[in-house]
Specification:
By secondary structure, this protein is of the alpha/beta class. The chain contains 15 helices and eleven strands. The structure holds glutamine. One of its GO terms (molecular function) is glutaminyl-tRNA synthase (glutamine-hydrolyzing) activity.
């Protein structure tokens, strides 16, 4: 059952080769074996998972199943799930059991999928290495001394190690694609507004977007089919028809054009990553795809712009953690103000505090125009660059990350070098565009990915191109030794 695709698992279930209960028990066992060294899961609830599996088996016996019925899916601990402890990787929510389901969880439940457990993550999704979690760091299954990436590092490590067939994740600046790249997986960040943010704990609301981390483009297509839906409880959710992403996977790509941003393929690009990307380009050329140089002239400003806008929004979103209504509350205080102060001082980790400080600073009177307003203006220019680029090409190819995974502890003392991890991913969040990272090879035995960026709501084309690449390569089928 290990390393089967979602389609194969679906086939196994529908042909009664195995039941959902057997499948769920199998993965729970894998978790018992591998989680102690990888730390990808924060919360497990065997009884809840097995009950869902038995319910799924009932559905299957009544021939009332769809693609994910009975399949265990790991859920990033940013998604509220009724009755499940939902922490967002923070001490602040260590005692929080969600009274309701997020839209994403609701959709998985409706499809009959099994919630396999909640995955570890950087605290409040702030980070690129999964080292800021209150529940300890996650290790990369390809080499346990290395980070799995973040913030969805638990989800990525769970899938890469075979503890889960697929997982949910979220991406505010790169947190789906970067861990996917560092763990040899396929991760899709959809267009802003395609997947509902209802019940997804907010970091930076104008950037946050949920999506899948799985082994292949095909698996991502299956996951996205379930996750994408209009939701009146999210005011930025888009109402439009969701295409069947599976149907277009085999569309011909011959004669199509991929743009290469000259700002990404310059001397700053790591030589080894460049060689891998050239091989990817070669593969697509063999399939008859044309390449064209394009320009994203403001892309070098994405990191500074993001680190004004994201902390600004975070400082506002995180003001709700005050020890009054839910979550952590300091034990001793003399008055209300001290309760707030001590609660936030004790409940938040260092990186979260750094973001809150930066966010309140850039929003404060006197600095608002100089930082926040200016950042918003450049954000528009960054989006316009993409708009112009898509007049000339169908998709854009880019590196996913500046390098392969780094060693645990290597960047913890240097926040800015950590922030640079997202230099190739952040501009798409600022523009709200969809993008995928697909495995493309190895450098010194560590996986490396490439990124395909699409136009708004063109996930179908992204998945189609990625699937075609994965048909002629097998990087996405490699599995790490630590997982056997
Ligand atoms: N690494 C980025 C940050 O720390 C992005 C995180 C994310 O996408 N959630 O903000």
């Amino acid at each position: 059952m290990k390393n089967l695709s979602l389609k194969e698992l679906n086939l196994g279930l529908s042909s009664k080769k195995f039941s959902s209960e057997e499948l769920t028990r199998f993965f729970l066992n894998e978790i018992k074996t591998f989680n102690p060294k990888i730390n990808a899961f924060i919360t497990l609830d065997e009884e809840k998972s097995l009950q869902q599996a038995r319910d799924a088996d009932k559905r299957i016996s009544q021939d009332n199943m769809n693609e994910l019925t009975g399949i265990p899916i790991a859920q990033k601990d940013i998604f509220c799930a009724k009755g499940w402890k939902t922490t967002c990787g923070s001490k602040m929510l260590d005692n929080f059991y969600s009274p309701y389901d997020s839209k994403v969880i609701e959709l998985f439940n409706q499809s009959g999928a099994v919630n396999l457990g909640k995955t570890n993550m950087d605290e409040f999704a702030m980070g690129s290495s999964n080292e800021t979690s209150y529940y300890g760091k996650v290790r990369n299954p390809w080499n346990l001394d290395y980070v799995p990436g973040g913030s969805s590092g638990g989800s990525a490590a769970a899938v890469a190690s075979g503890m889960a067939p697929a997982a949910t994740a979220t991406d505010t600046g790169g947190s789906i694609r970067q861990p996917a790249s560092l763990c040899g997986l396929t991760g899709l960040k959809p267009t802003y507004g395609l997947v509902s943010r209802f019940g997804m704990i907010a970091f930076a609301s104008s950037l946050d977007q949920a999506g899948p981390i799985a082994k292949s483009a095909e698996d991502c297509a299956l996951m996205l089919k379930v996750m994408a839906a209009h939701d009146t409880r999210d005011s930025t959710s888009i109402k439009q028809n969701i295409p069947d992403y599976l149907k277009s996977l085999d569309n011909p790509i011959k004669g199509k054009t991929i743009g290469l941003p000259k700002e990404f393929f310059n001397d700053d690009l790591n030589q080894e990553v460049k060689i891998v990307l050239e091989q990817v380009i070669d593969s697509y050329q063999k399939m008859g795809v044309n390449f064209k140089e394009i320009s994203l002239s403001n892309s070098h400003l994405s990191i500074p712009v993001y680190y004004v806008i994201a902390p600004a929004e975070a400082s506002s979103n995180l003001s709700r953690y005050d020890g009054v209504k839910f979550g952590y509350r300091a034990k001793e205080f003399k008055d209300l103000e001290e309760m707030y102060l001590k609660t936030r001082e004790q409940g938040f980790g260092e990186e979260v505090k750094r973001r809150i400080l930066v966010g309140t600073y850039v929003l404060s009177a006197g600095y608002y125009d100089a930082y926040y307003l200016k950042a918003q203006k450049i954000r528009r220019l960054i989006a316009d660059d993409f708009k112009n680029a898509f007049k000339e090409c169908d998709l854009i190819l880019a590196p996913s990350c500046p390098s392969t995974a780094f060693k645990i502890g290597d960047k913890t003392e240097d926040p800015v070098s950590m922030y640079m991890q997202d230099m190739y991913t952040i501009s798409t969040n600022l523009a709200g565009l969809p993008a995928i990272s697909s495995p493309a090879g190895f450098i010194n035995k560590m996986p490396v990915g490439f990124q395909l960026i699409g136009n708004y709501f063109d996930e179908a084309t992204i998945l189609n191109f990625t699937h075609q690449y994965q048909r002629i390569t097998d990087w996405h089928q490699k599995t790490p030794e630590a997982a056997v």
